[in-house]
Structure formats: structure tokens, C-alpha cells
Specification:
- With 466 residues, the chain is mainly beta.
- It has seven helices and 39 strands.
- The strands form four sheets. It has a 26-stranded mixed beta sheet that branches. The protein has a seven-stranded parallel beta sheet with strand order 1-36-34-31-28-25-22. It has a four-stranded parallel beta sheet with strand order 6-11-14-17.
- Strand 9 and strand 10 form a beta hairpin.
- The longest helix is centred in the first third of the chain and has 13 residues.
- The N terminus is likely disordered.
- Belongs to the glycosyl hydrolase 28 family.
- Pfam families: Glyco_hydro_28, Pect-lyase_RHGA_epim, TAT_signal.
């Protein structure tokens, strides 16, 4: 372990950090065993769903790919028939098919053929009646997500085609921009969550302004989202909630509206996200588990999540945890991801390749975020930002625990600093570990506060070992 002097020599600013040369706490020693041995075990338990070799073309149910005919009823009828007959593939052929909400049923694969586009209506009424959902981590009834399933199993969205949210053509941006009306509904929903208002009474939808997610599966099992290109979602893009056995592979997300994360596994387990490209106006992959008192009430963590071989060009974090993490998060692994790839530069440079957000308002725990073999360039701020004082304007008294955050074998060129670690005086950050990393063109010093058991081994910053 580096001495306090060596870290200060490297430009680190230390506040109430525990850095004892040559020693580690018993907890830190227990956590020092290689956690990556868990990844093969996790991946063995994740199996994409399989479907019967039968197909239903949406045009046989009245869909017309002219971009103007409302195909909502045709999608509903095709999915219902596929499900009733024991499952298979509902096919969207080449063409542009306009629709409102699509609700998947068990054993149905929605397949968007190359050249096919599902164009989602810009009319909020196309996403009524309301459905049970989570909105920014709080349960409620709201506009339906554009593609939605509740309590289903063996479901998929696949194909080389496009899901076009058309968000910039709709009213969604006006709902939040320039102090738009979303703010009042957002505050009211958060109050309901904090006051434990029964979920059945938290009804939004018509006359309200909470933007729906693009693709959301709630309380589902055996999920696949594969290969599609997803354009302009109104809010979070792919959001499995309270679900298990989830595969997200080979998708491309391009979003420009505010708060349009790429993929948000939320209170979900055994999730594999790989080979994806995220060009987002927020976090790329953001692991969540509910917000504040409502997240603690539900009390379901996100765990056993593996992210591999993705390109990150999001406006905020690459691999992110939080800030809605009140149900807890454990065992997140991310490897071989590229930050700001020249082959996929995106609209915004990533601010933080690793971004962890928690607070005493959220409470909860984050236990085990492991990153290795990241490469890339032009990080906008720090390589790793762990902020346990996120949203400092929101006061809280809940205990919060963040520990065992690791980065290994990572090479990045260009950043304001390597580390910005913000623990709390009452709840220290613990067990941050960097090994065999090289960072070049780093402009400034580390900032470290209330952090115990910080380990840096074979870490080079601008050619100098720390």
C-alpha cells in the first residue's frame, strides 16, 4: 500500500483518510481475494430465452409500414395471437410502422427486421391507460413505457431494425425544460414515496408530466434485448425492474434528451450487458435499486451484473451506480469497455468512466463494483468519482455504505484527475483499490475525503508510479 507521503507527492488531497503503510484492515484483507472468479458463475446462470420456430407478421394483422397509419391495434393483435398459440416471433418487416404502447406477453419475441422501424407516437395519449411502473426509482401508475411488460417471462426485442422514440418531435422535452411542469409531479411523487402513500393512490398519466421510459420490463424473467438500434427515447432507454435473467447485447442507443440513460438495471439480478454502444445524454449503464424511502420499502437490491465489451460515449458516467440505489447494489463487474472511442465518439465526452452516487437521503449500500481493462481517451473530469454526498441539497439521516470499489489494468489518456473520492464523516467510503493502471495527460491532483483502506499498486500517473 502506498504511504500517505507518496500519495501527497502525487498531488492527492487527503481528508480524514485511513492510509497505513504496510497494513490493511481485516475487512480489506477479506475483500482482497480476486472477485473476478465470480463472473463465470454469474454468466452460467444467465441464459437468453428461446422461442418456438413460428412467426406472425404484423402486416397480416393490419399494420401498414407507411409511417402514418396507426398500427397499435395490429401490434396488440399479433402479440396476443402469438402468445395464445404458445409463442414464437412477431415480425416487423421493412417499412416504418407508427404505433403507441406495445405490451409484450410471455413467450413472444418482437423481431424488427433490418430495414424495419417502429416509430413511436408523439401523442402522450398513445401511452394510456396508465400502468404500474417505477419512475426514477419510485413506484407509481404512469404513462406506459413505449415497450412494456409486467410479470411476463421468456420475452425479447430483437433484430437489426430501429426503435425510434421520436422524442424530439413530441412534447417530452417541454415537460422538463425551462422549469417545465414535470418538476411539480416529480416532487409530488417523491413526497408520496417518502410518506408511504399506497402505490394505488400514486396515479399520474393524463394531466401529468412524468415522461415514460422507452423499454421497461417489470417483475419479468428471462429477457433478451438484442441488436436493435434505439433512437431518441423520452427518458431512460432499457430499464429492467425487479427482473432476473436479463441479456442486453449488441444494441446501439442514441439519445439527446435530458435524463436518457442507456441501460438501467433496477432491483434486478443476473444481468449481462455486452457488445453495446451508448451515445447518451446521461449515464451509459446505470445500476439502480429504488429511491429513498420507497426503495428501502421494496428492499430489492441489484446484484450479479456483468458489463462487457461496450463503447461508452455518454454525457455523465460510463459504468454508474446510483443515485437511486436505496435497495442496495452488490457484485457489479465491468470489463473491456472503451471510453470515447474514435470509432464511436458520441455527442458528449464521458465525464466519469466510473461514477458512483449515494447519499444519506438514499441510504442503502453499494458492495463490490469491479472494473478492469478499460481503455479510452479524453475523460471530461475524473476517471473515478465516488460521491457519497450526492444531491447535497437533499437532507437525510439514513446510514449509507459504499465499499469495495476496484479498478484494474485500465489505460486512459486525458483526465482532470484520477480520483475524486467523497466519503462522509459519519459514513466513510471503504476499500477503494487500483492496481496495474496507467493514466496519461492527467491535469490535476486527486481529491480524497473520509476514505479508509485506499490501495494503489503499480499505478502510473503521467509516467510516475504512485
Amino acid at each position: 500500500m502506498p504511504s500517505r507521503r507518496s500519495l501527497l507527492k502525487a498531488g492527492g488531497a487527503l481528508t480524514a483518510a485511513t492510509l497505513v503503510p504496510g497494513t490493511m484492515s481485516a475487512q480489506a484483507e477479506a475483500e482482497s481475494a480476486d472477485p473476478w472468479h465470480e463472473v463465470p458463475r454469474i454468466l452460467r446462470k444467465i441464459r437468453p430465452p428461446r422461442f418456438r420456430n413460428r412467426r406472425w407478421d404484423v402486416t397480416a394483422f393490419g399494420a401498414v409500414g407507411d409511417g402514418t397509419t396507426d398500427c397499435t391495434a395490429a401490434f396488440k393483435a399479433a402479440i396476443a395471437e402469438c402468445h395464445r398459440k404458445g409463442g414464437g416471433r412477431v415480425v416487423v418487416p421493412p417499412g416504418r410502422f407508427l404505433t403507441g404502447a406495445i405490451h409484450l406477453l410471455s413467450d413472444v419475441e418482437l423481431h424488427v427486421s433490418e430495414g424495419g422501424v417502429i416509430a413511436f407516437s408523439t401523442d402522450p395519449n398513445a401511452y394510456l391507460p396508465v400502468v404500474f411502473t417505477r419512475w426514477e426509482g419510485t413506484e407509481c401508475y404512469n404513462y406506459s413505457p413505449f415497450i412494456y411488460a409486467l410479470g411476463q417471462r421468456n420475452i425479447a426485442v430483437t433484430g437489426k431494425g430501429v426503435l425510434d422514440g421520436q422524442a424530439r418531435q413530441g412534447p417530452w422535452e417541454s415537460w422538463y425544460a425551462n422549469s417545465g411542469p414535470q418538476g411539480a409531479d416529480q416532487r409530488e411523487l417523491r413526497r408520496m414515496g417518502d410518506d408511504d402513500v399506497p402505490v394505488e393512490q400514486r396515479v399520474f398519466g393524463a394531466g401529468h408530466y412524468l415522461r415514460p421510459a422507452m423499454v421497461q420490463f417489470v417483475k419479468c424473467q428471462d429477457i433478451l434485448v438484442s441488436d436493435v438500434t434505439i433512437l431518441e427515447p423520452p427518458m431512460w432507454t432499457v430499464n429492467p425492474v425487479l427482473s432476473t435473467n436479463v441479456t442486453v447485447r449488441g444494441i446501439t442507443v442514441v439519445s439527446t434528451l435530458y435524463n436518457t440513460d442507456g441501460c438501467d438495471p433496477e432491483s434486478s439480478s443476473y444481468v449481462h450487458i455486452h457488445g453495446c454502444r451508448f451515445n447518451t445524454n446521461d449515464d451509459c449503464v446505470a445500476v439502480k435499486s429504488g429511491r429513498d424511502a420507497d426503495g428501502r420499502r421494496v428492499g430489492v437490491p441489484s446484484e450479479n451484473i456483468v458489463v462487457q465489451d461496450c463503447l461508452f460515449s455518454g454525457r455523465w458516467g460510463g459504468i454508474t451506480v446510483g443515485s437511486e440505489m436505496s435497495g442496495g447494489v452488490r457484485n457489479v463487474f465491468a470489463e473491456r469497455c472503451v471510453i470515447n472511442s474514435p470509432d464511436f465518439p458520441g455527442n458528449y465526452p464521458v465525464k466519469y468512466p466510473v461514477y458512483i452516487k449515494a447519499s444519506k437521503k438514499r441510504g442503502g449500500f453499494i458492495q463490490g463494483v469491479h472494473v478492469r481493462d478499460f481503455t479510452g481517451r479524453n475523460v471530461d473530469r475524473e476517471v473515478m468519482f465516488v460521491n457519497m454526498a450526492y444531491a447535497s441539497n437533499e437532507q437525510g439521516t439514513e446510514p449509507v455504505s459504499v465499499r469495495d470499489i476496484r479498478m484494474e489494468r485500465t489505460k486512459l489518456d486525458g483526465a482532470d484527475a484520477v480520483l475524486n473520492l467523497v466519503g462522509l464523516e459519519s459514513d466513510h467510503l471503504a476499500g477503494v483499490r487500483l492496481e496495474r493502471c496507467a493514466f496519461t495527460n492527467v491535469a490535476g491532483p486527486n481529491k480524497i475525503a473520509f476514505t479508509d483502506d485506499l490501495v494503489m499498486r503499480k499505478v502510473f500517473v503521467n509516467g510516475v508510479e504512485q
